[in-house]
Design brief:
By secondary structure, the protein is mostly helical. 80% of the residues lie in helices and 0% in strands. It contains four helices and no strands. Helix 1 crosses helix 4, helix 2 crosses helix 4 and helix 3 crosses helix 4. 11% of the residues are buried. The mean pLDDT is 89.
Length: 79
Amino acid sequence: GADPAEQIENENYEGDNNFRLAEAVERLDERSRSILQRRWLSEKKSTLHELAAEYDVSAERIRQLEKNAMKKVRGLMEA
């Protein structure tokens, strides 16, 4: 039995984080947003190679774009 006040505080914190995450992802450019959503936020995860073929770039470039997008999201969430 956790303290009910603590449980509510944790739920509020999680809800706030989810909201800030969604807001940060929406502020990304379309390609970065699509890559993050398809790699991490969808039921059926896309591979680097699938996205590379779609965007006509290397899998390494997709990995770089993904890394940069995650860095931007972290920065936006901390702001």
